[in-house]
Amino acid sequence: MDKDKDDAAELREEDGSRPTEIAGPGECDASPIRCEEKATAGDQVHECTFSADAELQESFPVEEIPVYEGEDGLPVIATPPTESSEAVPFAYETVVCIEDERQFLEIFHEDASEDLLTIVNNMQNSERECHIRSKYNSKGLAREMQISKPNDVKKFWGQRFATKRINGKTIFFPVRPTRERCQYYKRQVFSNDDQPDPSKFGHQIVFRLCEKRRSNGGAFMSLMNEGVYCCDFRNPEHMESIATQDAKDKNKLELRPHELRVPMFGIVGDDIQVKKDKNNV
Q1: Where are the alpha helices (DSSP H) in 196-276?
Q2: Is the dihedral of CA 45, 48, 54, 59 positive or negative?
Q3: Ordered per-residue pLDDT tens for the chain, 281 residues
Q4: Calpha distance 67→46 (Å, rounded)
Q5: Cis before residue 236, ω within 30 degrees of 0?
Q6: What DSSP designation does 184 have?
């Protein structure tokens, strides 16, 4: 009876659905009692047995392979390219959450915060000539943003400034990275028990998480081996990726691809345009 009470308490207290549940890396695995499935009164005999090959069948599910007729009349298996089976690489272009400091962009007066304007005044008081330009010239036309290399950037009072030479003088102006890190992007690095030697490869395990997205149980969304090309939750916003996705969405809304029928599996044939609804503009 005591064992049954302990099992019931474990299922009740550690079901993984509580947002406030505290668990370390080694406590995230389900215990045997939480994975156990017991037979009920209505189960048939064949439903209460377990065969040795059942686990193998679950690990290697049988999936249908698309086959189409080739030009010679023989069936051809439509196999995906090998690149599609690889994980998305961790790169500037594939993970919009991370910062991109390969270039720095000029900050105009209209985009500057009050804190930045205060720092600019501090730069002037320290006898460093600092300029923060308006986004528009005297004719109301937009100025071209200056782009600086990382080697030309220095930090004063916690703010990055780039330099340029004008009439023999060194002029400072505030800059920002091409893309700043999202404030919801978090990392955790744990030790790997399978490789206890800290000097060996594989000792550290890196977890990348999004603090903005949560599951029903309260867990943060994992970003491991994930490609994040655009995110409206991002803070600060990344207007370049948002503009790219906006253009794709607008193109799809205008072209209405759901009204076009194409041959399946690359079979030779004509595309068919579905008759448009009169109410569709």
Answers
A1: 239-255
A2: positive
A3: 565 665 555 555 545 555 555 555 656 665 666 666 677 777 776 666 666 666 666 666 667 777 777 778 788 877 766 665 577 889 999 999 999 999 999 999 999 999 999 998 888 888 788 889 999 998 999 999 999 999 999 999 999 999 888 888 889 999 999 999 999 999 999 999 889 999 999 899 999 999 999 887 788 888 988 899 999 999 999 999 999 999 999 999 988 888 888 887 777 778 888 876 656 55
A4: 35
A5: yes
A6: T
List the chain domain ranges. 1-35, 89-99+180-281, 100-179
Cα separation, 194 vs 206, whole angstroms: 15
How far is 194 from 188, CA to CA, in rounded Å? 18
CA 150 to each of CA 120, 145, 154, 235, 242: distance values in angstroms, whole numbers, following the listed order: 20, 16, 8, 23, 25
Sign of CA dihedral 152, 157, 159, 165: negative
Kindly report the number of other CB atoms within 10 A of residue 11's CB atom. Answer: 13
